[in-house]
Amino acid sequence: MKILIADDESIIRLGLKAMLAEIGHEVAMASDGREALKLAHQKRYGFAIFDVKMPFTDGLEAARALYRYRPTPILLLTAFGDKELIERAAQLPIQGYLIKPVVEEQLAASIEVALRRFEESQAAAAKTAELEESIETRKIVERAKGVLMNGGLAEEEAHQQLQKAARDQQITLRQAAESILKSKGKP
After folding, report:
1. How many C-alpha atoms does 63 have within 13 Å on its Cβ side?
2. Residue 6 has pLDDT above 90, yes or no
3. What is the value of pTM for the model shown?
């Protein structure tokens, strides 16, 4: 997997790179969050590990920006375990939080868990979007049926007319409903 790491301490970057290479990953390194975001705009990474405290753009802000630009599983890494920092990190779309020093077994396990949590959250988000789309489609179809019923059709006849229009024009039921609403001047 291609992993992007960002840490302002070169010894930490090199240590992480060695550990990640040892377990079979390809690594790109950045010395701060700004550089990491530039790299992320040039190439897609399957995972990111950001130190929390870095110059220019810190790991918290880099994690937020990367997730907005391209949702990616992210681990935050820090030498600090203070409560306020952990609370700020918990508000971000990250999948884990590691406190230095990190050992290879801990890193490998954290990556595995983070990947699973990320996949689960992405699947849940996709399902939510699908359900919202379904509800919106149902509302549009019901409004179109209402327009047709105001024209004298029974509910079943209105639904059948929508289905026939969709079949005849080879469009979705929602598109047929939107067409009817548009033709009748209804938003």
Report:
1. 27
2. yes
3. 0.75
Instruction: List the strands of the sheet with 74-78, edge to edge.
Output: 26-30, 2-6, 47-51, 74-78, 96-99
Q: Could you give the 3-state DSSP secondary structure of residue 54?
A: coil
Residue type, 23: I
The amino acid sitting at 159 is H
- Just give the CATH number of 130-183: 1.10.10.10
Tens digit of pLDDT for each residue in 115-167? Answer: 999 999 999 999 999 999 999 999 999 999 999 999 899 999 999 999 999 99
Among the residue ranges 14-28, 92-106, 150-164, the one predicted with the least confidence is 92-106
SS3 179: helix
2-102 in CATH: which number?
Answer: 3.40.50.2300
As a whole number of angstroms, the distance between CA 62 and CA 39 comes to: 12
Residue 11 has pLDDT above 70, yes or no: yes
3-state secondary structure of 166: helix
Is the CB of residue 76 less than 8 Å from the CB of residue 60? yes
